[in-house]
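Q: What would this chain look like folded?
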Amino acid sequence: MSILATILESKRKEVAERKSRISIHALEKTGFFARNCHSLSMSLTQPASTGIIAEFKRKSPSKGVINDRLTVKEVTQAYASAGAACLSVLTDTPFFGGTDQDFEEARRANPHTPMLRKDFMVDEYQIVEAKAMGADVILLIAAALSPQEIKKLGSLARSLGMETLLEVHDEEELSRSLGDYISVVGVNNRNLKNFAEQNVEASKRLAEKIPATCIKVSESCISGPSIIQELRGYGYKGFLIGESFMKTDAPGKALLDFLNQD
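A: My prediction, written as structure tokens:
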């Protein structure tokens, strides 16, 4: 069984347990559910935008513990101060060490910055959860979902005022997953079957296949500003970076230094 399949099996059990504890109706009356969402698309397309989607991630299945010393508040505030266009916060606990509380703390600490709930979404319940946490954007992974599931989850997110970042790895996933409920397409340069590190060739290869109506985001394996400049030439506006910042003692400073490189 692949790492992704193992995660999805665990996630479905987790969601079933969550549903038994709190209803959707109750979620709709809690947390940040009533707030208006910030637009990731607008943040990424502003002329002065860095395009950086900076991620708070404690660990991963392939790397183990990355950084469990720093708080989500200090990291995300430093990211925002350094110029991050969006904050990505992991909420999966077993495999990535994230929690719902992490997301809510980051939301309170960064009220004006778009935020992505990074998790493995398999059920409409999680979309409502994301809204209650204060998410502006949810992630849908094409490799983990059928076209019908993507339509159902993406349509619900849009109806709640959130945007969807659709993550794809190849042309087949892209072609079967698009719809008017998708505003942002992310190309993951990492192989989700084994989480192996690759390069940004996947982003280059798929660039012309992504509709002009969608904002293009390149995810992972972005080693420096020169790579970003190259990807901008392919039409990319967003760049999701996590581990390279999180593996330092000061992720916010790492982002600032990254942006200030010649």
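The chain has one domain: 3-259.
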